[in-house]
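Lecture notes, unit on protein representations.

Consider one protein chain, 458 amino acids long.
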Amino acid sequence: MTTSPDSPAQTTTTAISYRTIDLRGQRLSLAGLRAAVPRARQQTMADAEQKVTDIITSVRTRGFAALSELAKAFDGVEQEHPRVPAAALHAALENLDPAVRAALEESIHRARRFADSQRPANIDVELGEGAVVSQNWVPVGRVGLYVPGGLAVYPSSVIMNVVPALAAGVASIALASPPQKNFGGLPHPTILAAAALLGIEEVYAIGGAQAIAAFAYGVPAEDPEAALDPVDVVTGPGNIFVATAKRLVKGVVGIDSEAGTTEIAILADSGARPSLVAADLISQAEHDPKAASVLITDSEALAEAVRAELEVQAGLTKHSDRVREALSGPQSGVVLVDDLEQGIAACDAYAAEHLEIMTADAPAVAARIRNAGAIFVGDYSPVSLGDYCAGSNHVLPTSGTAAFSSGLNVTTFLRAIQVVNYSKSALEKVSGHIVSLSGAEDLPAHGEAVTARFAGDA
């Protein structure tokens, strides 16, 4: 986590206020643990919801006019239409740094291998002679994939969104990323190059909550060729406004999860290396001033050593001010626990987007975790590996939603359709049970719909 020789280290006189939450000696319920672990302030989320609601309403009612105004207000660009020209996609790929292209191609290769193995098999179950129930996995028709911009450039998120959608067999894929003033109002050229590398031709320069609204409701136009058709599923990471927008449109469209501002938790014991723990906490803190970096440990000595490392390493990294703000926020800090058991309980209560295990017998400890977006085991599986080249997906649930949501995967883009195929004799065999149950539920017409099929039989 050092700068290049040509870049002077950034310094600051303000120490990192990496707070401590001491749970030692307390026997907390799950609700108590969830209340105790670090989180962003709830008022921030409430403020975001009102702003996002207004944006969604504006996009729904005013379409491209609203998108143009929002692009000017938030991104500082003038925009006639957000669709990225095909020529811009091709040019971005042609001008891509060969080293970056090679890295993207390796990331795509690994992600494809993992995604291709995830597709579940169709099943046929014969419940009796002539009685077959099947489950068939069918891709959704159209998806909208969001790739964030702002403080960083995320071609890796193009891969993470697109590859599982392709593996699922989705026929229509649209991608949106914020317009960039420095690039003529188009998304960053590396984003465009990654999209072109994957064969994605429908790309829009739309950012934030307005992109989610446009995908969910569509944007009509007098010229059908200029319209943005609504999608069936919206996926992708983003800030609190993107995550809030996804929550608000859920039900209109499917979503992957509330993949908001990034977070990392590290479960570590006294044997962990403080320099690695600090480096990994910083690696996620550099994403955003609101990023969460949490250390859960039963070793007070390790916690102090990590604090010292954070001060040193944060002063050497490029985005020092951003890192310091994230580490000093209410969403970050050390959670001190009595032992490994309480540490595992705290991890499950926190339900981290990214959870690193740096303990003795890390694989066994990882196997006991129930709530996490992704788990990284041991010293040589840092979150950065998952961000780029592990083969896993980095679009993961945040803010505790990993307790009930999964990371982006092939099944996000699939629906399981059940198919019932009974013969006459197979239906007759269970007809009496159907009549009995329909009577018990006071829905006699259900039973009559079955007996009608045998009314003319001798």
